[in-house]
Amino acid sequence: MGISKIEKFTEEQNKVAALAKALAHPARVAILEYLFKTKSCVCGDIVEEIGLAQATISQHLKELKSIGLIKGSIDGTRVCYCIDENNWEQMNSILNKFISTKKTQKNQCC
Amino acid sequence: MGISKIEKFTEEQNKVAALAKALAHPARVAILEYLFKTKSCVCGDIVEEIGLAQATISQHLKELKSIGLIKGSIDGTRVCYCIDENNWEQMNSILNKFISTKKTQKNQCC
DNA sequence: CTTTATAATCGCAATATTACGATTAATAAA
DNA sequence: TTTATTAATCGTAATATTGCGATTATAAAG
């Protein structure tokens, strides 16, 4: 990719992009939906639900965890994953600020 | 990437992911912000504003256009880009449905 | 017709992502 | 202690993304 030029952009632009990237794969969208839907957020259940290999799911979980949208707690040999409600709210407001607060302006020129 | 397994996911999950992907680079976020901010949405102005090479900006514009968030109209040798208000609204509601309507549920298990 | 201005496209290099089998690490159960 | 169970990590293949220089296509201007 050449070098990604994040230094050319504002903190906020980079944050919006990073959050959007976390949602930019259907498997991660599905994982998040599943975590909202069910209480049994054990990794193995997610693997069954989504239908990708365990290694692949683990990688997606790692990404979601690294940006803070989910958190995991160890329970014996299992790991229980959950939405991180606080960070989810924060993401919600950052993305909303970007995609929602613009719409009042009217400057269609084409 | 192996093969991307979009057939394993719902229409809606793929749509959310595709829209998020369009926002998943700070240059595209910056372009969209700029198009909202100014009326002079000529390609050359965007190139100057963002500070990446013309070929690179053109590629980002193409991506934004292909998912429908912006549209361009030819004006002599120039091309004038604008937010596609209708599709923007649609994206707004699809992403909002995903990131906002979940928050009422409480099922923290870790 | 020739020149100029503008933006799209091509071709390439560097890097990132997605996916998975195999292995490893950690804990529980026997 | 040995043996499952579970999830993380490693290594690798296939593919996508990002970025840019060079070229091309198009239309305006001279």
From TrEMBL, chains A, B:
SMART domains from the UniProt entry: HTH_ARSR
Superkingdom of origin: Bacteria
Keyword Lyase: no
UniProt-listed InterPro entries: ArsR-like_HTH (IPR011991), HTH_ArsR_DNA-bd_dom (IPR001845), HTH_MetalResp_TranReg (IPR051081), WH-like_DNA-bd_sf (IPR036388), WH_DNA-bd_sf (IPR036390)
UniProt domain HTH arsR-type: residue ranges: 8-106
Keyword terms of this UniProt record: DNA-binding, Transcription, Transcription regulation
A Pfam short name: HTH_5
NCBIfam families: HTH_metalloreg
Annotated protein name in UniProt: Metalloregulator ArsR/SmtB family transcription factor
Organism (species): Wenyingzhuangia gilva
